[in-house]
Amino acid sequence: MAHSDPEYDDQGADDDDDVVVPGRGSRSMVSRPKGRAQAKWEAAASRNWELQEGADGSLEGVLGGLEEAGKRKRLLKDTTPLQRGIIRHTLLVLDLSSAMNEKDLRPTRHLLTINYTIAFVREFFEQNPISQLGILGMREGLAIRVSDMSGNPNDHISALKQLRSTEPKGNPSLQNALDMARAALYHTPSHGTREVVIVLGALLTSDPGDIHDTIKACIRDRIRVRIIGLAAQMHICAEICRKTNGGDENCYDVAVDEVDYRQQLMAITTPPVLRSTDTEAQKNNQAALLMMGFPSRIVEEKATLCACHGNLTRGGYLCSRCKAKVCNLPATCPTCDLTLILSTHLARSYHHLFPLRNWAEVSWKRARQKGSVQCYGCLSAFPAVPAQYEVANGDEHDLLFARTKRAEGASESSRYECETCGNHFCIDCDVFCHEVVHNCPGCQSQASLPGADGDGEANGG
Amino acid sequence: MNAVDATDRGAAQEDIEPPSLLTIILDTNPHAWAVLANTLPLSKAVANLLVFINAHLAINHANRIAVIASHSERAEWLYPTPAHVQRERRTGTSHDSEDFEMENGDGDGDSLGSGGPVHPPDDANKYRPFAQLEHALLRNLQRLLATTTPAAISSHPSTMLAGALTRALAYISKQTTSTSSLTSTSSAQFNYSDPSSMAGGNSADPTGTSRTSGGSSTALTSRILIISVSGDLADKYIEIMNSIFACQRLSIPIDVLKLAGSPIFLQQAADTTGGIYLSLETPQARAGILQYLMFAYLPDQTAREHLIVPGEGEGVDFRAACFCHKRVVDIGFVCSICLSIFCEPLADGECLLCGSHLSMANYGQNPVVVAKTKPKKGKKRMLDGGADTGTSGGEGTPAPG
Questions:
Q1: Which of A96, A129, A227, B280 gives A137 a disulfide partner, CB atoms 3.0 to 4.6 angstroms apart?
Q2: pTM score > 0.90 for this model?
C-alpha cells in the first residue's frame, strides 16, 4: 500500500485552505505547484540495484531484510485517530472509451478494470458496510449509468459482469461524468461524504462545455474527486483532484502496472479523513444522530414474500419498527424507511476509528534485554541474539552492526515491539495484526499492562 | 504435509483430505467454572476435551492442534508450549523447577512447537503423539492455575477472550503461510485479492461462495473452537469484533460450545464466520459434552459441506448493546461520527464517546404519510388563489358521505 495513504500525511496543511469558499477560491485555483515532484515511474527507474553484501559475503540476510522492509513500508502509517467519513456516498466512474482497448494492462485495460472493480466493490462494502456506492461509465462522449446508488454489493457486481460483454467505444467526457455524479450525489444526506472516483484510461476528455464550471460546482457541492490514470498524467485531472480535495495533491495518480493499479484502487476503500474545512462547511447541518434498527434473523416454517424484492423466502429479518420482512441487510425498510443494519456492520468500521499503533523496530541490545526468543503471537522462533555478554560494550555494538546490516526499515533483530505491552513479534504477525486483525495479541492477552517499568528509557541508549 | 507429498501423484486429488488445524480456546475463567463445579468440573471437561483432541489427530495424521487458555487475567498457550516457559524451566526460575530437572538437557530440539520439552512417561500402550500432547497440555494448565494469584482472580472477573482469539489468529496465519509457502502466499496474507471472501457480511447466502474458499487440496484449513463459560464480554467488544471479522476475511469458522453464561456476540461470531453454535444449558446436556464435541465439532469444513450441521435453522439474535446503559436494543440511535449506539436520544445532543454535537436527524418524524401533506398543498393552492382559509379546510378533507 505504498500509495494508499498519502492523504494522512499533510492534514495540517489543509486545515487553513480556503478552496471550499467559492468566492475566494479563485486565487488558489490559479496557483499551481511550482516544483513538480518526482513522478512515480522516475523513482522506479532510479532504483538502486546494488546490494550490500554482509560481512561474510552472504546475501541472504540482506535480501531477507529487503523483503521485510517492503512489508513494513506498506504497513507504517500514521495511526493518529482521525475523524473519518464512515458513512460514504461514492460514485465510481469507469472509462468505457476506446482507449480501454489497449493491451498494456493484461488482458486489456477494460477487462482488468472490470475484474478489479468487482474486487473493489467487495472490499468497499467490507470496509464501509453502511456506505452507498454507484457506478457510472464514460462512453462515446456520454456518461452512462452502470448501476444505481445502492448498499448491496451484488447489484453492482452483476451490473459489472454485464459490462464485460460490451465493447469500449468513443471518447470519454469528464465533464459529463462529473455532472452526472453531481446530480446523483445531490440528495445524499449531509452527514455522509460525497466522493467520486474516476478510472481514466484515455488521454483526452471531450466535453460539451467549460469543465471549470463543473469543477466549481463540485466544490460547492462538497464532492471530492479522486482519479486513477491508466496511461499518463493529465493536467486537467490533477487540477480537478487538487481543487476538489482542498489543495491535496495526492488524490491523482497514474498506475504504472497491474499491481500498482490494484493497490491504488484498494486504497480508496479506506474511509477518507475528514478535513476541518469540510466540517466547517458541514457545521450547520452536520453530525446527525441516526435512528437505526437492529433486526434479528428469523426462520419461518413456510416461505413468505419479502417486502424488498417480493421473493418467496423462508428466512429474513423483521424490521424492528413495522415488522416488514426484508431478505438482506443492510437495507432501508421499504415500508417505514427505517435504516436496518446488523450491529456487526457498525463494529466493522471501528478499527478505522481506533487504529492499532505501529510497532517499533527492536535493536539487538533491546532484544537481549527483553530476552525474547519467540514471537509472542505465533510462537515462531526468532534468530538468536548473537553476541555474548563478555564482549565489551563498544566492540560488541560494531560487531553486531556489521553482522546484521539490513535494509532500511527492517528490524535488525527481526523483532518488532508493541510499545504498549512490550512484547516482541515477528514481521508476519506485525503485518497480520495491522492489516487484518487490528488487535495486538499482547495487549489483549494481559489484563495489567506493564506501564512505567523503566524499560522504555533503556531502549533509547 | 509429508503425507500429502508422499502419496501417489496419479491418484485423484480430491481424495486427499487437506490437513486441518484446530485451535481450541478454552475459557478457564475460575468464577464460571466454580459455578459449574457440581455438574461439570473443569477436570472432567478437560478429560473429555482430550479425547476429542485425540480424535481430531487420529482422523488425519497431518492434522494439527493448538490450545489456548483464555484465563481471567491473561491468555496463555496450553499447547504448543511457548518457549519462555521452557527457558524458565531450564534456568530454574520456575516455581516447580525441581520437578523438571531431568529434562534440563534436552529441551532445545522441539522449541518449534512440537510439544515442548516436557516428556511424557513412556507408555507402550499409548500412541505417542497423544501422550505427548496430553502431558504438555495438562502440565501447562496446572502451571497456569498454580500461578494465578487470588488477587488476580478477584480483580478480573471476566475472561481474556479477545487476546486468546488474536493469538490464535496470529498462530493460524503463520501456520497457513508456512504450510502453503509453495503457492503464492502474499495474496493470501493481505487477502485483498481473495475473490470469494464474503462482502458486506450479508449472511443471507453463507453457503455458496464463502465455503468454497477453504483452499485447494493441499492448503491447511483452520478452524477455531471456543469453549465458553463466561458471561459478559462487553468490555472487549471492539477487540472481539475485530477478531471475528479477521476470521471472516480468512474464512476461518468459529465454532462455539457454550456451557454457561450468555455471551451475546459469540452467537453472532459463529453466524458471521459460518461456524456452529451450540448451547448446553441443562446438566444432562453438559454431561454429554463429549458426544456434542464428537458429533458436532469433529468434522472440518470440507466434511461439513456434505453434512447437515446442527444449529442451522434457528434465528440469530442480532440485537446490539447500547453504549450508554448496556441495554440490549433493537432500535437504537447511532452517532454518525463514531458509530456508537445509544438506546435513547441524547439529552444535550452531545455524543458520549466522541463529544461531537449531534443534531437529531429525522427522529420524531412519523413515517411519511401521504394524506398528511395533501391538505397542506391544497391550502397553499387555495392561498395562492386568494380564497379564505375557512373553506379550504373543509374542501381538503374528503367527506365520508
A1: A96
A2: no
